[in-house]
Amino acid sequence: MGAWGIGIFDNDGACDLAGLVAEGGGLAALAEALDAVLAQGPEYLEISEGEAGLAAADIVARLKGNPGRSDSYTEEVDAWVARQRAAPSAALIAKARKAIKRILSEPSELLELWQEHDDFDVWKSGTADVLARL
After folding, report:
1. Among 60, 91, 123, 133, which one is most buried in terms of CB atoms within 10 A?
2. Contact call for residues 81 and 27 (beta carbons, < 8 A)
3. What's the DSSP call for residue 39?
4. Cis link prior to 107 (omega < 30° from 0)?
C-alpha cells in the first residue's frame, strides 16, 4: 500500500486523483473514480479504486462546503474547489455516499489492509467523517 498516514489523502491513489481533478479532470474525474468503485458490485474492490473513490467522495464533500483536513496533500485540490462556482449535483453526492459504503464492505482490499493495521479504528472514523460531510 502506497500510504504514509491514515488521512484520506495520505496515499498515492488519492494524491493522483486530486492532481487529475485539479489539472483539468474536474467533476468528470470525480464521477469516473466513484463509478469505478460502484462498478465492482459484489466483486473484489482493488486498493487503487478504493483510494481514489474515497478521495473523490472527500472532494465532493469539499465542493458541498464541508471541507475535511487540509494540508500539503490537499492544497492543489483545495485551490480547485475554491474556484468552483457550482455545488455538486445530488446524483454525484449520492454516488459518493454509495462508494464509501462499498469501500467499507467486503470484499475490499483497502478495508482488508486497514483491518490488519493498528490504526484501523482511526482510519474508519476518518472515512465515516467523509460520509457525514456528504
Report:
1. 60
2. no
3. T
4. yes
